[in-house]
Structure formats: structure tokens, C-alpha cells
Amino acid sequence: MEPIIIVLIILVVLVFIALIKTIQVIPQASAAIVERFGRYTRTLNAGLNIVVPFIDTIRNRIDLREQVVPFPPQPVITQDNLVVNIDTVIYYQVTDARAATYEVASYIQAIEQLTVTTLRNIIGGMDLERTLTSREEINAALRGVLDEATGKWGIRVNRVELKAIEPPTSIQDSMEKQMRADRDKRAAILQAEGVRQSEILTAEGQKQSAILRAEGEAKAAALRAEGEAQAIRVVFESIHAGDPDQKLLSYQYLQMLPKIAEGDANKLWIVPSEIGDALKGLGGALGNFNPTGGGGIPKPSSPERQAPPID
């Protein structure tokens, strides 16, 4: 009985192992390569799959999701003979599991080496300044070459990014000094522009202020002249309305003479020729003045001469 039990146990174990090998569960976004006696048979997709146990074998399981692979810095020589280190990142996706398995031994290593050689060809035709400022151009050129070369491997390169472009230390120091000089130059230019603009605005303000002041003074002078003209007109009209004679005018002229002589700076006083006419008129006026009603100035009477005594 014991050998029979042992055989039955062995058969159960073999059946269990056969069931395990027969049923293959492939996760989502994955694929599996099936070989029968070492020859490719089919590709298993996601889900439950049945294979022939002990005859069909799973060669490779491939992830069909987009993969991100960073590559270590690679030294590249530019057109002006400067060595720069470039870090790259590749975003790729397996589109054909069979080609990725049988067309290339290791597609990751192949993509890395192809990236290095392509970078050297692209950067070799650029100088350092263009290399530092043309990342988009380098990415586009690198992606085009990689996508074309990896298509037959069942790989699609979705995106290529340059993480860093590091020039030599001496070049970095020179670039920093140049950038510092450029910043100082721009700061000096901006400061000079600010001073120039400030002076222009100040001059414009002073000009506008002088114009407004001159306009104000002109308007004030015009108003003063207009007021004086109006006053003269009123005085003139009042004088004509009062019908003054020569005597009154002469008297007013004599009243103005002290005002003409006012002031400490008047060292020389020139008497106008018209003062004679004014004095004549005033003299005539005083000559006609008679306090007793006679209309003239009384002359002093001479003492009467007494007759000598008669002996």
C-alpha cells in the first residue's frame, strides 16, 4: 500500500504543478513571450492565459508602461574644443514585446550607447554658447535619431531631456565674471537712465514753472495796467466833469512836488520848466484872493508922514 500512496502523492503534486504552469496570469500593461522548445510561439497579453505545461515556457515578461531611464553624465567635446558633461533622461515605451526581446540583446544598454554617440555628433557641431542655449534643439534632434533607430527594436522614444550641461570649472568662473560684469553694466546704464530721466523731468518742471510764472506776471501786469488805466480814466472823467481851471491844476501840481523829491537816493532834483507856469497861475490865484471881500491881497499901508512943526 505504501508505494501506491507515494505514487498517488507524486501524481497529485505533478497535476498541481501542471495546473500552475498551465494557467498564466499576466498583469495589466504587461506582456509575456512564450517559447515552445526554444522557439517563439506567441505573446501573452494581460489577463488569464492557458499554456501547455512542460512544453511552453515563459521567456520574458515585459512592462509596457512608459519608462524613465536617467543616464550618467557623459563627456562631450564642443566645436570650440571644450569638454562638457551632459546628463540625459530618456522616456521610452515598449510597443512590441517580441521585437524588444529578439531584435536587441539589451535595449536599455543599446539606447544609452546610441544616446551618447548621437549627443557627441550633435554637440560636436555647436560651440559652447550655442550648446548652453539650444536645449530644445538638441532634445528634438536627439529624439528624432533615437526614435528612428529604436523603432525596429519595438521601442518608442517619447521624450528626451537634458538634465544638466556642465562646462569646465574655468569656463564657469569666466562665465560668472562675464555675467557679473554684464549685470554691473546694466545696473550702471539703468542708473544713468534714471538720473537722465530725473534731470529731464526736473528741467521740464522748471520750464513749466517759469512759463506759468511768466504768464502769471504778464496777466498781473496786464491787470495792473488795466486798473491804472481805469483809475486814470475815472480821474480824468472826474476832472473833466468838475471843469477845473488853471488855478486848481497849478495848486495840485505844487502838492505833488514834495512826493517827487521823496527818497534818500535822490541826490539831484531837476525842476521842470512847467513849474514857472504853475507858480504864475498860483500867484495869480493868490493875487486875486482878498480876505476883506475885495478880491485881492491888501497891501501894507505906508506910515503917514507928519508935517513938520511950524514955528
Tell me the series of helices and strands, N- to C-terminal.
Answer: HEEEEEEEHHHHEHHH
Mean pLDDT: 79
Sequence of strands across the biggest β-sheet: 3-2-5
Please give the share of residues in helix.
40-55%
Task: Describe this entry's structure for a reader.
The relative contact order is 0.06. The N and C termini lie far apart (228 Å). The C terminus is likely disordered. Helix content is 54%, strand content 21%. It is an alpha+beta fold and 311 residues long. The chain has a 3-stranded antiparallel β-sheet. The chain is rod-shaped, with a radius of gyration of 62 Å. A hairpin with a 2-residue loop joins strand 2 and strand 3.
In short:
With 311 residues, this protein is α+β, with helices and mostly antiparallel strands.
